[in-house]
């Protein structure tokens, strides 16, 4: 299985670090977020990884080359001309993923989620996409009819979208930044340029099965803000 780490973001919530560096190279107990997630993937036998770059792209490329990919075979998806967001970034890298499901994860999340269990769930159920989710506080939630994605809600703006009417009151779960995606999604991604993968999921959820895998209880932290570093260092050695 192959994977993609999304490392192109501007990291606006992570200033002042991101005024001179990419967020993916911020360190937690002496190891960068990028290194930690490459090692995480390796622990489940995944060593062929696409990394997309935009913000301070040269620093990421140099770090990868200097450290020989920390043991992974890394291919760069260069977005220096224009950052493409999650959907556009995944679509640009579509040539790398053929024939088998693949993992996508954000560079700024850390977790001890058992990826093998998530992959087994995906292979058993054969949805278009499986999303790692958990019951935790968030400003944005995916909505599920049992374990099938049926919508999305933003608690700050009160915006709510339903892909189809759920059979009962949908459950709200926070997305953990890890997806298992079947390559059959690519012909269905009609957006071009810069776009969010969440938009694609919400459009496809009415006609395609997108499932949620609940890993509540696993260690997890979104290192999206600088104050999260101390919390991450307490959780991950």
Q: What fraction of the residues are assigned to beta strands by DSSP?
A: 25-35%
Mean pLDDT: 96
CATH topology assignment:
Spore Coat Polysaccharide Biosynthesis Protein SpsA, Chain A
**Order of SSEs, N→C?**
EEEHEHEHEEHEEEEEHEEH
Name of the level-1 CATH class: Alpha Beta
Q: How would you describe the overall organization of this protein?
A:
This protein has 237 residues and is of the alpha/beta class. Strand 2 (27-28) and strand 3 (31-32) form a beta hairpin. It has helices spanning 33-42, 57-66, 85-92, 115-125, 197-204, 228-235; strands at 2-6, 27-28, 31-32, 48-53, 73-78, 102-106, 109-111, 129-134, 140-145, 148-154, 160-162, 171-181, 210-214, 220-222. The chain is globular and about 50 Å long. The strands form three sheets. Strands 1, 4, 5, 6, 8, 9, 10, 11, 12 and 13 form a ten-stranded mixed sheet that branches. The protein has a two-stranded antiparallel ribbon with strand order 2-3. It has a two-stranded antiparallel ribbon with strand order 7-14. The protein has six helices and 14 strands.
Lay out the secondary structure.
Blueprint: E1 2-6, E2 27-28, E3 31-32, H1 33-42, E4 48-53, H2 57-66, E5 73-78, H3 85-92, E6 102-106, E7 109-111, H4 115-125, E8 129-134, E9 140-145, E10 148-154, E11 160-162, E12 171-181, H5 197-204, E13 210-214, E14 220-222, H6 228-235
Parallel strand pairs: 1-4, 1-6, 4-5, 8-13
Antiparallel strand pairs: 2-3, 6-12, 7-14, 8-12, 9-10, 9-12, 10-11
């Amino acid at each position: 299985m192959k994977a993609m780490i999304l490392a192109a973001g501007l990291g606006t919530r992570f200033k002042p670090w991101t005024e001179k560096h990419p967020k993916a190279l911020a360190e937690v107990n002496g190891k960068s977020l990028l290194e930690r997630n490459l090692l995480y993937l390796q622990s489940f036998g995944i060593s062929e990884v696409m990394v997309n770059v935009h913000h301070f792209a040269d620093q990421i490329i140099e770090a990868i080359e200097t450290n020989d990919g920390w043991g992974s075979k890394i291919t760069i998806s260069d977005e220096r001309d224009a950052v493409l967001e999650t959907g556009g970034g995944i679509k640009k890298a579509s040539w790398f993923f053929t024939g088998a499901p693949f993992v996508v994860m954000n560079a700024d999340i850390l977790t001890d989620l058992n990826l093998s269990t998530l992959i087994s769930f995906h292979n058993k159920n054969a949805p278009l996409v499986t999303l790692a989710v958990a019951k935790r506080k968030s400003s944005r939630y995916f909505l599920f009819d049992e374990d099938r994605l049926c919508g999305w809600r933003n608690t700050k703006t009160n915006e709510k979208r339903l892909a189809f009417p759920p059979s009962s009151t949908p459950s709200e779960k926070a997305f953990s930044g890890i997806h298992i995606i079947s390559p059959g999604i690519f012909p269905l991604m009609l957006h071009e340029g810069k776009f969010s993968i969440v938009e694609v999921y919400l459009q496809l959820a009415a006609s395609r099965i997108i499932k949620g895998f609940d890993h509540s209880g696993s260690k997890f932290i979104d290192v999206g803000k600088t104050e999260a570093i101390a919390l991450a260092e307490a959780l991950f050695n």
